[in-house]
UniProtKB/TrEMBL annotation:
Compartments (UniProt record): Secreted
Cleavable signal peptide: 1-18
UniProt xrefs under Pfam families: Ins_beta
KW S-adenosyl-L-methionine (keyword) present: no
Name of protein: INSulin related
Single Gene Ontology MF annotation: hormone activity
Ranges in a coiled coil: 21-48
GO cellular component annotations of the record: extracellular region
Domain of life: Eukaryota
PANTHER family: INSULIN RELATED-RELATED (PTHR33893:SF9), INSULIN RELATED-RELATED-RELATED (PTHR33893)
InterPro entries: Insulin-like_regulatory, Insulin-like_sf, Nem_insulin-like_b-type
Length: 117
C-alpha cells in the first residue's frame, strides 16, 4: 500500500513537473520570438537613423558650401575688393554676407562706393 501511494505520488510529481517544463519551454520560445522581433525592429530603427544622419550630413555640407564670408574671411574679402578696410558703411555686411554669398560688386558698392572697378 505504501509503495503504491509512493509510486502514485512520484508519478503525480513527474506529471506536474513535465507539464511545468512544457509550459516553461513554450514561454521561453515565446520570449525568444519577441526578442528576435525586437532586435529586427531595433535594426530597422538604427538603419533609418543612420540614413537620416547621412542625409543631414549631405545637407550640412550643402549649407556650408552656400554660406558666405563671415568674420575674418569677410574682412579679407573687403580688403581684397576695396584695397583697405574703412569704417562708416551704412550696410551691415557682416549679417548679409555671412548668411549668403555676396558678390564683389555688392561689397564694393557697400564698403567702398568711391572706388572704381
Amino acid at each position: 500500500m505504501k509503495f503504491t501511494t509512493l509510486a502514485f505520488f512520484l508519478a503525480f510529481i513527474m506529471a506536474v513537473h513535465t507539464f511545468n517544463l512544457k509550459e516553461s519551454s513554450d514561454h521561453m520560445e515565446s520570449l525568444e520570438e519577441q526578442l528576435e522581433e525586437n532586435q529586427d525592429k531595433q535594426d530597422q530603427l538604427y538603419a533609418k537613423m543612420f540614413q537620416d544622419i547621412h542625409e543631414l550630413q549631405k545637407y550640412a555640407k550643402k549649407v556650408r558650401a552656400r554660406r558666405g564670408s563671415c568674420g575674418f574671411k569677410l574682412l579679407e574679402k573687403i580688403a581684397e575688393v576695396c584695397g583697405d578696410i574703412s569704417s562708416g558703411s551704412e550696410v551691415d555686411l557682416a549679417t548679409i554676407c555671412c548668411s549668403k554669398q555676396c558678390p564683389d560688386s555688392f561689397i564694393q558698392a557697400s564698403a567702398c562706393p568711391d572706388k572704381k572697378a
